[in-house]
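Supplementary notes (optional reading)

For those who missed the lab, this is the record we used. Protein: Toll-like receptor 1. Length: 785 residues.
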Amino acid sequence: MLAGLRLVAASPDSTVDYSSKNLSSVPRDLPKGVEFLDLSCNHIQQLHRDDFRNMSLLRSLNVSWNSLETIDPDTFLDAPLLEDLDLSHNRLRNLSGQQYLLNTGNLQQLNLTSNAFSTMTLGSAFSSLVKLKRLALEAKNISVGDFKNIAEVKLCTLTLCLGDELGYEARSLKGVNAQRLQMISSSELMDCGPYADALSLFAEVELMNLTGGYRELSKILSEKVKILTSHLYFTDISIEWKDLTHYVNVILGSSIAHLGISGVVMSHLPYIDSYVIQESKMKSFSARQAMVKSFFFSQEAVCNFFINMPVESLAITTTSIIHMTCPKSPSPVLKLDFSNCALSDSIFSRVKGQQTLECQNLGNVTQLILAGNNLKSLQLISVRTRYMKSLKYLQLGLNSLFYEGQEECVWPPNIITMNLSSNCLTDSVLQCLPKGIETLDLQNNQVSVVRASILKLENLRSLNLNDNRLRDLPVCDGFPILNELLLKSNSLHAPSVNNLKSCPKLRTLDVSHNPFTCTCPLRSFIHLGIKSDQSSHTSIGLWNWPIDYYCTYPENLRDTILKDTWIPEVTCNAGLLAATILCPTVALIVSVVVLCRRLDGLWYIRMIWQWTRAKHRARTQSDDLAGVEFHAFVSYSQHDADWVQNALLPNLQGPAGRLRICQHQKHFVPGKTIIENIMNCVEKSRRSIFVLSARFVKSDWCHYELYFANHQRLSRGSDGIVLVLLEPVPKYIIPSKYYQLKSMMDRHTYLEWPQERSKQRLFWANLRAALEADLPNAPITDLEE
């Protein structure tokens, strides 16, 4: 128990443990930043002034279980922050000479038990401990005036270890200003004096390690006229059943309001019921970690004694009881606590013949705590409590409860708070709940969906569904005044914020630690979280936002806080996305069309396309150029001779083109027929250029040339005809007998002669690209047969 006086280290880096190191003195290499120092279980005999030099941060020091005999008065001069000092189990001899305490004004806990003090006389140095809260002492003799130097110190707990040969002077404890007196006995109660004074001087008294003397205590309580103690505790005691029941009955008849027993070992337990008085001023009784030595006894008789006690609060916890009986008469108990026992579904009931009788004598119970037992059927528990008409708070957590929905639950009508956490409950539990419930705790179960059509709880204000299997936010149609909804650690990927529109009263929402998928459906929830930062009185506040809300998918956003995640609206809104793409596209198309119409864009595009195709054909097609002397033969009407001589030939034969062009004026051989000359020119030329105009279509010789060029194209297997449209030629003016020209104009892409000078450079580039080829370097001679 005394070990509990020590402070617990807050940081491992500031803790030094030198316990059980066989030390004979305080080490000199202790770090300056140490806060918690353990030197227990060594052989240190003295503490010197320099032992704790420069340890200005030292807060807790344990030097227990050493051989300390002397402590220098200036030992703790350099440790002004010291709060916890344990000097128990040493050889200190004089309580009035502990001058080192003058330098421990910040001390809150001091343990001096198990030393060699012969008297309890506290020296003047104790009066300087104005912050002291817990003091543990032990001496062979206690006299009046021993505690006068701590009369002004307001202690929370004074612990006195009482030995077998204690010499105690009556009223020695008078003047001690402590809320609680803790008395540790070595065995049986030997001297009743300190116990009698304790009950008349202290509001809370705790008796520890008793193994006997209970009859003497009962006598003290019975004879004492004035008892100040309102809270009486027994810790780590051994007692026979008859002494326990007798002593409890005596306390029930006294003015003590609260009786607590912890760590009790009972023996000689009964086979029949024990007497318990029916009227008492005592408000509460609690028993914790009760154990039995008897193997054969009536557990029903033991339970009957406790359940029939006339108290308002009854608690039996952390005790292996498997059943609790029903009071024999209407019980005044308001609160029952049987947590962490081994109770089963048969609690409070009894079997008579073939019939199970339910308990009807606990109608005043307002709080029932059955957490941590072996309860299984939720429907049976509703039957066991159906006659507790005053029941408002029911704690059933940490059991193995389930509900399959086959039988109807019959809860008492006034339950407003129910805790069903850490059970095996599924969605069907929503059909087995009290209708007037206001606070419901279902955390750590297996609920996957909350159906509003099933859950009709019009008074529900708080719903805890943490650590379940929910995939979306519930709809609040079944609980219209819900104010608090807790859904932490479920399976919510993208909570549907629209469901919250059915929760007009909701002010607190916790959806932290869920596996959020940071995609488009989560945008509205992120907006809700950002809005909650504004702390509006009318909006929903998200608990633990934003630090406990982070992405789990996609991988590139894993562990990113939702608040820092940006999901563009344009990627989530199909209409907006379409508008974002289509509007610029339409605008671009319109702009291109307008520009093309105003700047002859289509003409340029067509010219560039033809030039590209010509270049591509020149690289990819390998013509048989054997016997070819000219790049092209020009066929035109005599009326277009000026354009051919002044425009066409200079741009093809000149420096810009350097092409070999066959002309009838220059290369027709005199003496040969025109037909023969045409045929020879076409055969000697890689391409044939036809300058189309209205006069061309009316020339028979031009059509002959066109006919032979087309025949040459078929015989070579390659397209060698290039049409140049010098002016628009409507097809209707072409005589029907010249159907080949019409066919070529439909099939061939022809070049149009532009009138604008700005376009003519591109025209010549296209034409040269169509004609260019590497010809044999044969000399050009007159054409012969």
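If you only remember one thing from this example: Residues 184 and 210 are 8 Å apart (CA to CA).
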